[in-house]
Amino acid sequence: MPDSTLVGLHHEEEHHPELLHHFADAQQQRDSASLGMWIFLSTEVMFFGGLFCAYLIYRRWYFGDFGAASKSISAALGATNTAVLICSSLTVVLAVWAAQTARRRLLIGSLVITMLLGLTFLGIKGIEYKEKFEEHHVPGASFSFDHVPIPGHPDQYANPRHAEIFFSLYFIMTGLHALHMIIGLGIFAWLLIMAWKGRFTPAYHTPIEIGGLYWHFVDIVWIYLFPLLYLIDRHP
Amino acid sequence: MSMATTTLQPVERENYLNKEYGALSWLFTTDHKRIALLYLMSITLFFFIGGFFALLIRLELLTPAGDLVQADTYNKLFTMHGMVMVFFFLIPSIPAVLGNFLVPMMIGAKDLAFPRVNLLSWYLYIIGGLMMLHCMLTGGVDTGWTFYTPFSTAFTNTKIVEAGLAIFVAGFSSILTGLNFVVTIHRMRAPGMTWSRLPLFIWAHYATSIIQILGTPVIAITIVLVAVERTLHLGIFDPKLGGDPLLFQHLFWFYSHPAVYIMILPSMGVVTEIIACFARKRIFGYSFVAFSSIAIAVFGFLVWAHHMFVAGISIYAALVFSLLSYAVAVPSAIKVFNWTATLYKGSIHYDAPMLYAFGFIGLFTVGGLTGLFLAALGIDVHVTDTYFVIAHFHYIMVGGALMGYLGGLHFWWPKISGRLYPESWARLAALIVFLGFNLTFFPQFILGYLGMPRRYFQYPQEFQVLNVLSTAGATVLGVGYLLPMMYFLWSMRYGKPAPDNPWNAAGLEWKTTSPPTTFNFEEEPIVTWEAYNYDELDAPRKEGVPIAR
User: Fold this and answer.
1) Chain A contact probe: residue of B221, B247, B253 with most A CBs at under 10 A
2) Which in B6, B258, B277, B422 has the greatest CB count within 10 A?
3) B56 domain residue, yes or no
4) A177-234 pLDDT per residue, tens
5) Do B236 and A54 touch (CB under 8 A)?
6) Handedness of CA B77, B40, B197, A30 (dihedral sign)
7) Looking at beta carbons, which residues of chain A come within 8 Å of B251?
8) Containing domain of residue B310, as a range?
9) Does residue B23 sit within a domain?
10) B433: exposed, middle or buried (C-beta count within 10 Å: 0-12, 13-18, 19+)?
């Protein structure tokens, strides 16, 4: 095979320890990974899309009940969490930039802060869940939402059954979001170890980029969840 | 065309099958061709499990009385038949076996873009499959494969959650396959392999992958909601608790209608390859056939509520969904007409793959046209939930998807196994499948039109003749499915070694060895020709032959 030496040379030229055998060059590998993550995120959009669809239908059906139920959640905790996540998106972008420009300490610092912000988010979420549990707002046998007036209609009480649907959706949506957050923390822990070992260089930092894409997606889901679940009936 | 034969080679060239031996070399392989074979073995197992349920259903329906099994058992039989066949056989069938094997080779790539994800998808399929097997062995599910609420969430005491999670996990496997194909087709094409030179098999798989990517997550979240509602007694889909059962049906069919196109589109891709090869012609209207696949994928997402015409949706919604359902017929008809136009004045060879392709065109046309009956608001009311519906979707899923799968398996078997299958047995099996299929399912159109409802284990005396015909057909069909399995296995040991291109077919997969090496090609191919250049392939042969006018 006279061509095999040529092929070998070609590969040596472009060789990078992270380049997998079936890609022609690093550019193709990077593009594939990035496209793969975008497509994966589109599946996530459809996954959450089913929930948003359910939410919109019941919000329209049980308008006042949803308002009353939404008002019982702490908007302050939700707003804090929104701020926490937006900050974490900033640190993710910093991490990507640090990897591109070979700033290893900044990279490690940004990854650590991102994870700390993620943990803060989950902690605040835990406090919120605890409040709901104590108020018997967790759907199930001990659920109660009696004699809660509908906002704007002080003479009407919300239907507990319908409020229960709100809380069902609230727990499923925020619960799945939190699960994605936990998976994100796992991914970032792995990125941190890789960064610690100095595996990322300006020539190879695809995992940071696609891990960052995932993190941003989880943030964006929250950006939609926050107003729909916390802010729908907060007018003075 | 008779199959070309070569003399037995004493020393086999190194290929993907003999490069490594041992169970671990298979279980940890990232070679798309080996993963395709892993899928082939696993889905064949589930095909025969699903077929076993079908056999019991047909035996029960041999007599009008419910005498073979109890009513509850019968409910479980048709449910498990549907779930196994849909989620564990038809959805992965062509994409995960033939697609996995061929997509990288047809575009001149060494592997799929994400080989490890590809292996992960097989493991997810196996985990889902084992969960489904466990669910079956410990009692099964009796809701029908559609899981309709609130029966599934508040009433039945069968294993809904376990079956749902099995499908959830298998769904992930399907998503990962689709994701891998899209990235591979976008990023891994060999130099010169432009979009307009792609085999139409690739276009069909691209369209399929779009549906897998965008549809499957919706069934996943639906299953999550059903499981949570059932476990925690929530009221998301339960009208007694303020929920909306129609919402469940919308979410369910948003995936499950496009899922039909996950089954049929790859089959259309297979048939396109076969027809071009055995008519020795370029496919008529390449770009129309290519974009009709995309159109089917897009329209397929807009027609789901035609499953709900009698469920209580608004008449205006029903009108729109009926109209859109008719729209799907346009790209489907484009394909059928273009295949027919390709055959016109072709040099047609009646080898086994072509027999399956012919079978596909006929059965798909019947299935598609009866789909139009069902999309018509008036007729649908009459035949909803009757055997007419059963016959219709079996013509698409079995007559269409399965014929394409078998045709493709025969067509590419020399490439996959490196051996030739026995051609005369294969032609016989193709005929048996075609006759058995029609005998099984055509009577069901009549039964349904006369009013026999689906999912009943007893029926009035007057329906017996047609039911006996159907059961007789099912046994013939069963023979037709067992035959290929036997001679494929036989050929792996005793078949003649296959030359690299036994059909003299176009396409990059035929330009490498049979079976291919691990990285598919000795050198990276550079494509300078259009797809289906059969006129160029056959040109030397035609010289000196007078052109008949």
Assistant:
1) B221
2) B258
3) yes
4) 999 999 999 999 999 999 999 999 999 999 999 999 999 999 999 999 999 999 998 8
5) yes
6) positive
7) 50, 53-54
8) 32-536
9) no
10) buried
Whole-angstrom distance, CA of residue B349 vs CA of residue B385: 41
> In chain A, at which residue ranges do the beta strands (DSSP E only) sit?
149-150, 153-157
Tokens read off for A110: 């940004």
* Cβ within 8 Å, pair B235-A24: no
The CATH code of the domain that includes B375 is 1.20.210.10
Give residue-wise pLDDT tens across range B223-257.
999 999 999 989 899 999 999 999 999 999 999 99
Domains of chain A, each with CATH number or no CATH: 44-230 (1.20.120.80)
**Contact status, residue A168 vs residue A139, Cβ threshold 8 Å:** yes
Q: How many domains does chain B have?
A: 1
Give the nearest partner residue to B111 out of A22, A43, A140, using CB atoms. A22
A82-92: per-residue pLDDT in tens?
Answer: 999 999 999 99
- Name chain B contacts of A48, Cβ cutoff 8 Å: 221
Name the phi and psi angles at A61, rounded to 5.
Answer: -65, -50
What's the rounded Cα separation, in Å, for the pair B484 and B482? 6
What pLDDT, in 10s, does the model give residues B89-116? 999 999 999 999 999 999 999 999 999 9
- What 3-state DSSP class applies to A185? helix
> Can you tell me which residue has the tokens 């009385």?
B65
The secondary structure of B317-363 as a DSSP string is HHHHHHHHHHHHHHHHHHHHHHHHHHHTT------HHHHHHHHHHHH
Token pair recorded at residue B461: 């005396």
B417 lies in a domain?
A: yes
Exposure string of B342-365, with b = 16+ CB inside 10 Å and e = fewer, is bbeebebeebbbbbbbbbbbbbbb
- Min distance B240 CA to chain A CA atoms (Å): 9
Contact A22 B242 (CB under 8 A): no
Q: Could you tell me the two tokens for A163? A: 């409020």
Distance from CA of A152 to the nearest CA of B (A): 22
Q: Which residues contact B65 (CB under 8 A, 6 or more apart)?
A: B458
Residue range B18-38: average pLDDT? 94
How distant is the Cα of B506 from the closest Cα of chain A, in angstroms? Answer: 24
pTM: 0.93
Interchain CB distance below 8 Å, A162 and B244: no
Kindly calculate the radius of gyration of chain B based on its CA atoms and give it in whole angstroms: 23
| Residue B386 bridge partners (DSSP) | B453
Mutate to test the interface with A, among B118, B121, B187 (most CBs of A within 10 A): B187
Choose the mutation target among B119, B179, B517 for the interface with A, i.e. most A CBs under 10 Å.
B179
Cα–Cα distance measured from residue B413 to residue A97, given in angstroms and rounded to the nearest whole number? 50
Domain for residue B19, yes or no?
no
Residues of A in contact with B111 (CB under 8 A): 22
And the tokens for A70?
Answer: 């939404």
